[in-house]
Amino acid sequence: MPRRYALGRAEEATNPDSMRAALAEFVSTLIFVFAGEGSVLALDKLYRETEPPASGLVMIALAHALALFSAVSASINISGGHVNPAVTFGALVGGRISVLRAFYYWVAQLLGAIVASLLLRLVTNGMRPVGFYVASGVGEVHGLIMEMVMTFGLVYTVYATAVDPKRGSLGIIAPLAIGFIVGANILVGGPFDGASMNPARAFGPALVGWRWRNHWIYWLGPFVGGGLAALIYEYTVIPTDPLPHHTHHQPLAPEDY
């Protein structure tokens, strides 16, 4: 199908659909970050005096997977259910979203993450968000590559289940598949660099907790990995010729996917 690269029309800036989509991204990102970072703080609370057991990583992965499944499901028919600046970037480089709407999404996602982190600090009686950092003994370059690979897998899954015009009924399980890949990646990458895959998920806790160690990794890695996944899927997997009539499917959200 044809790719459309656009800065965005002037009327799009004040279009009610754009406002609703940005609000959906704000709320969904808030839901995701609150549950995700909250699970980390809960584990810290439970095992303040000792090292958390290996099952703690499973708890964190499950919390992120379930929260992202819910967040994407809640917004997929309104905004496309990005809930992640790297996913929005993938949609942008794939020509699925205008620059203006991508900017709206990025602002909404970052604000959602910040508000979620502030709420967590309030309800936990001042516990400082942990955020992300590269584990001791793991180099920054290794952490960067880890983030690139994991986010590549995430955005590739988004494209396969939510974007591909041949997805058919597979689109129904898109939120579940997206949640699962994030949970699985946390089980793999969590002990090494925390497994963010999401600049907003990293930025909110970093700002509120004022923890900036290795923070650049959690922007560059997801953007590079997500952008590569979008380009590869967009230009090697999705057909450029019009599909037969019976294989056409409506996009999940207008002008997004």
UniProtKB/TrEMBL annotation:
It holds the Pfam family MIP. Keywords: Membrane, Repeat, Transmembrane, Transmembrane helix, Transport, Vacuole. InterPro entries: Aquaporin-like, Aquaporin_transptr, MIP, MIP_CS. The keyword Transmembrane applies. It is a multi-pass membrane protein. PANTHER family: AQUAPORIN TIP3-2-RELATED, AQUAPORIN-8. Belongs to the MIP/aquaporin (TC 1.A.8) family. TIP (TC 1.A.8.10) subfamily. This is Tonoplast intrinsic protein. It comes from Hevea brasiliensis.
